[in-house]
Design a protein that fits this description.
Elements lengths: L1 H4 L2 H7 L4 E4 L13 H7 L5 E9 L15 E8 L12 H21 L5 H4 L2 E10 L8 E12 L2 E9 L5 E11 L5
Antiparallel strand pairs: 1-2, 2-3, 3-5, 4-7, 5-6, 6-7
Length: 185
């Protein structure tokens, strides 16, 4: 958290009232066989240096109310120089990885908080992802990825997402479909 608190625009976001910051599972893998792409392979001084997620509660009872899911999560990514595609430009594949992880965090946090609903009771996976790159992404900077639930239909969750730089400029937009995985018999 301290890294992002040292960046004024990030500190403003994290320190807003009713904000709950957390380190996502993908950046702190629970085992050597889980979440290795972001938490082990990409993490490091030249790669993904830091990651922090946060959401805002509507009121004090929001966290404990199983019937009120978290519908919006923001993720901060501190990006190193080793993530470039072209010189000084963030690789498009890294942008796709960040949005996929940020959208997955929506399911992760709702499941961890015991929120009800078929899509939060089991693991969910990306079934489709459509991205529009609007501007080149920076390296050696921090970007913000906002992800929100657009709709839930049975086992499918439609999630939208945007990527913004520290000046608030929109770099990418994404829409995706996630499907909850049924337990095997």
């Amino acid at each position: 958290v301290s890294h992002f608190l040292s960046i004024p625009w990030c500190a403003c976001l994290i320190q807003t009232p009713n904000t709950v910051p957390f380190i996502p599972q993908c950046f702190n893998p629970k085992s050597p066989a889980h979440d290795q792409l972001v938490g082990a392979t990409l993490a490091g001084p030249r790669g993904l240096q830091h990651m922090l997620c946060f959401f805002h509660t509507e009121d004090e009872a929001h966290l404990q109310d199983a019937d009120r899911p978290i519908m919006h999560v923001s993720s901060l990514f501190a990006l190193g120089e080793g993530l470039s595609g072209y010189e000084g430009v963030l690789h498009g594949g890294m942008i796709m990885t960040m949005v996929d992880e940020a959208m997955g965090v929506l399911h992760e946090i709702n499941s961890a908080l015991g929120k009800t609903g078929e899509v939060f009771g089991t693991a969910s996976v990306t079934a489709g992802l459509e991205i529009k790159f609007l501007k080149p992404g920076p390296i050696n900077q921090t970007v913000l990825v906002n992800a929100w639930v657009d709709s839930v239909e049975g086992r499918k969750t439609r999630i939208k997402c945007e990527v913004r730089d520290g000046n608030g400029i929109e770099l990418a937009q994404c829409a995706s479909t996630w499907v909850s995985v049924r337990a095997r018999m």
